[in-house]
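**Protein record**
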Amino acid sequence: MKVKICGITDLTTAIAAIDYGADAIGFVFAESKRKITVPKAKEIISHLPKEVLKVGVFVNETKEKIEEIASTVGLTHVQLHGDETSAFSKSLSFPVIKAISMDKDLILKEIEAYPCEHVLLDGPKGKYRGGNGLSFDWNSISVKDLKGKKVILAGGLQEENVEEAIKLIQPYMVDVSSGVETDGKKDLTKIQTFINKAKGSQTGGTRNEFIYTAE
């Protein structure tokens, strides 16, 4: 099971997360309490291993700004967390992760045609488009409706429920941000425990044919 730790704002936490086994690190460039500056993100990424995914989170940003930031800081993937169209996604030169807020009227089948390899299933919208720590009813969906996509599960995940979530959804990756924080700051102990539990899941990563984490 692959794990993404999102909302990273300092090098110490990024390195620790990777040492614990994180496969992807997320940087938020949209409005958020975890928003990071371009120079800071560039500094952190310059110290990260090549094989680790570096994901930038954007919400309804212009193509020009996304491309500029991604190139400057060294992102490997762009996560679109707003109302970006299929045409917009296709126009970007970086691989796209399309984040979907799991509202009750959402039909997953409609996302199949979206031009991206990864689809991130997040909790309902809160104050921000992501990272609100809100989960959704995992029993209400089936990743069979997203054939051909690598499914990243996010929204309300934490060390207490990540194993259950993996067994029910069987995603390609899990993504966490607020679930590994204490008093609004990343907690290294929680990050380590979360990664250990996610990667120790007996069923994790066994159904990559339904390919799909965090914010």
Summary: The chain is about 25% helix and 20% strand. The helical segments are 11-20, 38-45, 63-73, 86-91, 162-169, 188-200. The longest helix spans residues 188-200.
